[in-house]
Amino acid sequence: MGSALVTGAGGQDGYFLGALLSQKGYEVHGLDKPGSENRMEAVDPACRWNVSLFDEEALRDLLRKIQPSEIYHLAAFSFVNTSPEQEREVLKNNLEATHNLISLCKSELPGSRFCLAASAEIFGTPDHSPQSEQSPVQPCNIYGVSKAACHHLVGMYRSLGYFACSAILFNHESSRRGDQFVTQKIVKTAIQIQRGQANELRLGSMDAVRDWGFAGDYMLAMWMMLQNDTAADYVIATGHGHTVRDFAELVFQKLGLNLDDWLVVDPEFVRPAEPFPRVGDASRIRADLGWSSNYDLEAIVDEMLQAALKI
Ligand code: GDP
C-alpha cells in the first residue's frame, strides 16, 4: 500500500485520517508541531515527526526518507482574529507552509498525490446557497483568505501536471472537536449543567446555520479523492443545514434538559448575520466518486455525547 504523510496529524482530522489509512494498510507518517507527538494517537510512535514546514532541508530529507505516495495536508492555523500580527501568522503558517510543502512534494516526489484540507471559509459570506465548486471564492476573513490562496496554489500545481486536489471541507465535528467550536461547547456545557457543575450556557448567534458533518466521513472523502484517476477539487458537505438552536435543543433534549432554562444569549459571541446559509452541495463528489455523508445530525450528537459523558 505504500506510505502516506499526514500533516497536522495531532488534530481531530489527523486522528480519523491516521486511523483510516492504517486500517487500509498504509505506513502512516504524522507530522505536527513540536510537543504534539503525544497527540498523534493514530500514528505509530516511530512515525511521528515534528519537522518544521519552514525548514526546507529537513522537510526534503524527511520526504526522501519516507517516500510517501500520498500527502494529506491538514496542518493550519485556524483562528480568525484580526490583529496585524496574528494575520501575518495565519498567512505565514497557512500559505507559506503549504507552498513549501507542495513545491517540495512536486520536485522530490513527482509521482505522489497531494490533498489539501481547504475550507468552506473560502466562500466567505456567499450570495447563494448551497455552495458548490462553482461558487465564487470570496473569503471575508484572514483564515479564509489564506485557505483560498492555498486552494488556488493547489490548482496552479495541478495545472503544472502534479496530482493535487483541494477538499473544500464544510464544518466537520466529532468527540475530538476543540472546545472553542460551538458544537463541543454545547455538548460539554450541557453535561456540566446536568451534573450541577454549571448553571448556564452562553451562546451567540442562535439562528446561524451550519452544515455539520462527521469528521471521519470527511477524511474518507479525502482518501477517495486521491484514489481517483484524475485530480479534482470537491466540496465535502452533507447538504443539510441546521441552526445552532437545532443542535443545542437536540443535545439538551437527549440529556433530559430544557435548553431555554439554561440559555443566555451573550452579545460577546454574536457574529454578523449571514444572509445565505453556509450549506454545501456535494453532488459532484457523489456523482464522480460515490461518496456521501453517513452521519446525520443526531448521529453526530450521539457520538459527541457518548464520549463526553465518559470524561
Ligand atoms: P465556524 O463555522 O468555523 O465559525 O465554527 P464555530 O463552531 O466556531 O461556529 C459555528 C456557528 O456557531 C457560527 O455561526 C457562530 O456564529 C455560531 N455560534 C453561536 N454561539 C457561538 C459560541 O458561543 N461560540 C462559537 N464558536 N460559535 C457560536
Give your account of this protein's structure:
40% of the residues lie in helices and 15% in strands. The protein is of the alpha/beta class and 311 residues long. The protein folds into two domains: 3-172 and 214-236, NAD(P)-binding Rossmann-like Domain (Rossmann fold); 178-210 and 240-278 and 296-309, UDP-galactose 4-epimerase, domain 1 (Alpha-Beta Complex), CATH 3.90.25. Strand 1, helix 1 (12-23) and strand 2 (27-31) form a beta-alpha-beta unit. Helix 2 crosses helix 3 (84-108), helix 3 packs parallel to helix 4 and helix 5 (182-194) runs parallel beside helix 7 (244-254). The protein is globular. The protein binds guanosine-5'-diphosphate. Residues 171, 180-183, 185, 203-205, 208, 210, 244, 269, 271 line the site of guanosine-5'-diphosphate.
Topology, please?
Layout: E1 3-7, H1 12-23, E2 27-31, E3 48-49, H2 56-66, E4 70-73, H3 84-108, E5 113-119, H4 142-159, E6 163-169, E7 172-173, H5 182-194, E8 201-203, E9 209-210, E10 213-214, H6 215-227, E11 234-236, E12 242-243, H7 244-254, E13 263-265, H8 283-289, H9 297-309
Parallel strand pairs: 1-2, 1-4, 2-3, 4-5, 5-6, 6-11, 7-10, 8-13
Antiparallel strand pairs: 9-12
Residues 171, 180-183, 185, 203-205, 208, 210, 244, 269, 271 line the site of guanosine-5'-diphosphate.
